[in-house]
Amino acid sequence: MNNPRNPEDESVSREIERLDTEMQEMKKQQEMCLQRKKQLMAAEDPAKGVFFSEEIHTMQMDYLRLEVEAETRRRKINRLRLGYEC
Q: Which terminus of the chain is more solvent-facing, meaning fewer CB atoms within 10 Å of its CB: N or C?
């Protein structure tokens, strides 16, 4: 017997795929923040009074924000897979 796929299942699959794509993009952005933070830290020269504390702080905050957003998406994917959300 031919059993067509439930449109709701396809919707959930598309949502999981979309969330996973967003999560991967956030991981890439996190890596860019980390690299930029390292560049700024390496460019600091305390002897000459060259500091980038505000920019370094901003990169760290962006990194942490992206981490939280990626974790939120990972948890939503898990809920969708378990059938707790539609």
A: N
CB 48 within 8 A of CB 33: no
The answer to whether residue 3 scores a pLDDT higher than 50 is no
Using the Cα atoms of residue 24, residue 25, residue 26 and residue 28 in order, give the sign of their dihedral.
Answer: positive
Q: What is the structure's pLDDT at 65?
A: 98
Q: pLDDT (tens digit, 9 = 90+) per residue, 13-41?
A: 999 999 999 999 999 999 999 999 999 99
Structure tokens, 12: 């959930």
The rounded distance, in Å, linking the Cα atoms of 80 and 14 is 11
The answer to whether the beta carbons of residues 75 and 28 sit under 8 Å apart is: no
| Other residues' Cβ atoms within 10 Å of the Cβ of residue 35 | 11
- Whether 53 and 6 have beta carbons less than 8 Å apart is answered as no
Structure tokens at 76: 């939503």
